[in-house]
Amino acid sequence: MDCDKCDESAVMHAAYSGLHLCEEHFCRSVERRVRKRIRDDNLLPDETTPEDPETWVVGLSGGKDSVVLTEILAETFGADPRVELVALSIHEGIEGYRDESLEACRELTADLDIRHEVVTYDDEFDVRMDEVVEDDPHDMSACAYCGVFRRDVLSRYADELGADKLLTGHNLDDEAETALMNFLEGDITQMASHFDASLGPFEGAEDGRTRGDSEAFVPRGKPLRDVPEKEVALYAHLRDLPAHITECPHADEAYRGEIQELLYELEENHPGTRHSIMAGYEELAGMAAAEHRGEGQEEYRECERCGGPTRREVCRKCSLLDALA
């Protein structure tokens, strides 16, 4: 099958759009969607100048999503004096798996000449996920611990590195799964939080919405959220990027796995389902966020243990560390 844009052979068919694209036009399509999301979310405000540049911290795990995001950001802004990119990687204490992915991170950041910082759970919390899985007295999901610790490290180090934005490599599938899970669980508060943290444009966007409901956290962006997971993987392959494509050995998010399978089936039978879910969810979550803010919400306070922002006396991270102790 020929590419719909030229006479070259197509490397992929996007059922949701009907397009057949060759390697060059496919890669351009991915890059265009990422750059459009950056514009739509006003990630780079108009007033940004070389004298007052933005610092963007990119969560770089070494997996396909974060590697593709870092590559496209470097291609787009590597020579732009208005933006400084900093890659932040986290070693959770998963031997073999994370060691190999960190090698991919080091190779990529060296090739792109990007500053690269590495933080470990061992240094931060005196915890290694291999030991948590083996010794956890509460028989909790490894992801329940790891997700909280990861968010804490990303937020704290983004702040310490002087980040104006914290960017992560969540793709369209990730976002649609989260949206569907929140809806099925009837979690209105999480919908509102997800909108404020991930979907609404930053200050200065044309519709006046702002992202983030508190100055306690560095604002986040997800420039890959319009690109399906398989297209991210294909882009990494075609561009020969050093992505470490292996699932975490401790991954056990059973419910998300069920949602993922459901979305695969829906998308196969009804192309465009993921895009429709996100379009509807953004509108619904936006209304939930507006109502949530209108009713008022408990202000952030300092955690009694670590001083980090929380709406409780002790933050979730410190509560989990106490449970392990």
Structure keywords:
single chain; alpha/beta; five-stranded parallel beta sheet; 325 residues; Rossmann fold
In short:
The chain is of the alpha/beta class.
Determine Rg (CA atoms, Å): 20 Å
| Total DSSP helices | 12
Distance between the amino and carboxyl termini:
60 Å
Order of helices and strands: EEHEHEHEHHHEHHEHHHEEH
Count of discrete structural domains = 1
Instruction: Tell how many strands the DSSP assignment holds.
Output: 9
CATH top level is: Alpha Beta
CATH homologous superfamily assignment: HUPs
Q: What is the helical fraction, as a range of percent?
A: 40-55%
The CATH topology is given as: Rossmann fold
Quick one: biggest sheet? 5 strands, parallel
Which sequence of strands runs across the widest sheet?
5-4-3-6-7
CATH architecture tag: 3-Layer(aba) Sandwich
